[in-house]
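Quick look at the format.
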Amino acid sequence: MGSLTIGAFAQAARLSPKALRLYDELGLLRPARVDPASGYRFYEPAQLERARLVAWLRRLGMPLARIRVVCELEPADAAREVAAYWARVEADTAARRDLAAFLIDQLQGRGDEHMTLGIRYAMRSDTGRVRPSNEDAAYAGARLLAVADGFGGEGRGAPASAAVIEALRPLDTDIAAGELLNALDQAVHEADAALRDITRTDPSMEGVGSTLTALLWSGSRLGLVHIGDSRAYVLRDGELFQITHDHTHVQSLIDEGRLTPEEAASHPQRSLLLRALAGRGVAADLKLREARPGDRYLLCSDGLSTVVPLPAVQDALASAADPDEAVRRLVDLANDAGGPDNVTCVVADVIDGAA
């Protein structure tokens, strides 16, 4: 088979000539040659395989920039890249599914704001055994729990985490369940703006930022906002579940199957953040969850999660009589493990508010 005109090639590849012109402009699929007189594009049959791959990836919804990366990889690496992309799509779809279910309930009048749940809570923050100062900040109130871990070096992260918590503090009031995510989203944007102001007014603060993980209650619904590598867990029916996803380089490698959790624990870039609040725009995760009486929630900075094994965290949470005892035991575990970082824990028990 000789060279194919753009029309014949489009038909064979099941793409439109318009799409082929776009892929040519973007460098995704160049024609084998272009007639200098007429400008007609001609393709070789050997290019069909790449054209079909582009078409399949577009059907998956993959952005063109990422398709360009996949097309340049060896087959095994390309397969891993597609798997990583699809894992992210499924995670995003699950989050949207939860939000859609919540909105449907609200619109149909089946919201459960009439359910009266309360929380008993405690908070503890410690500098640890190595760091000279504490750059963590936290808040625990009747409606709001939050942990922020500032960064920037030489203690400069402390003002950043404090500014983030201060931006969320006004949320500790009665907010309708249908407004939880809107309220959290607005507060996070205000927190990011506060960090931007800090760096603008004080050039020495350039490069500072903070993680944020927070829970906001209304009825039996809770909104979760998360960015960075602080974490949230829930202990339910004796099982401990992590309900946040780390925004770190090593976690992205785990998601893509390029690193095991065991390898990540000793990776030299295990603390490298891909997303955080730093005054440069917000890309926080927002989710809705349903709380149940008997749930025990934990929010913590990475000073706990990176040094205390998960089974020990679960045991401390499950065996502590109340949130005060739980936070004391968790911080002690981190310090007993060397306390290489600041450690902050907020623990809350969900109770029947009518009790």
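Next, a different chain entirely:
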Amino acid sequence: MSEYAEKIRGIAKKLLDDGTVDMVIGFRKGTMPLINEPCFVKDAAKVDALVWDSSCGVNLANYLPKRKEKIGVVAKGCDSRNIVTHIVENQITREQLYIIGVPCTGMVDRRKIRLAVGKEILSVSEADGKITVTGDGYEEVLDKQEMLQDNCAICIHRNPVISDEVIADPVEEQTDVDRYADVKAVEAMDPEARWNHFEQLLDGCIRCYACRNACPLCYCPTCFVDESQPQWVGKSVDKTDTRTFHFLRAYHCAGRCTDCGACERACPVGIPVRQFTKKLEKDCKELFDWEAGMSLDVRPPLDTYRPEDPDEFIK
């Protein structure tokens, strides 16, 4: 992926040199393998810090709401869709942004790689669809496709939907995936089994709010869970409070979530948080033929009203 990084650096340098933007948001190498960090470059002399590989999973749209300056931002498919959502929701203007589009073949799941290797990882490299992992006295080569984040494995919008410049030719979109196999499995359960499924799913939650903080949709100045007048939900790890937090947060993402996987990537205990938002994503697709972040010209279904909207649920 070094050619991607070189192109990103070249574009960033030009944008900063000619004053098109005040800052470029991209990625730099993290202090640990498989965890690249957001990087905010304001000096053209420092663009060499920018990198690109399959560990650039953080959604950089998370850093755009309420910014005032002109920004260049590196965006893969899901990031670009969240940028569209931010523009539609008036969190930033299109004129403030120079979007550097990156066709994406998926981000790797560091937990899957660590589990597959079972040893301390000192360095990681990738080429030709293979991930090479090295450590003290060993080297292992893994198939990237088998190590993808779950959301990337079923992604059908790998290319940016909005951009000012794209660094490579579009990649082939996936058409032979079932995006909602896990949701359908839960829907098929009887009520008791479904309740137990979610009870077990949330059992390890420590209420750290990493999922909320990583989500580009959670930009409210004060989250409902932090409100004290009135207090909507307790902040303990009580099962009712935990359940309420996750369900309410998911509903706040309804019709807006792009399934970028930021929530699951951030969770320190590995909870498959996307199971909540994917159900609502599926409902929006089936009820309104809606996919979030695909157009600047169409409002999300849950902030508009049309007489032909489904209303069979009204008794």
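The first strand starts at residue 23 and ends at 28.

See the schema section for token definitions.
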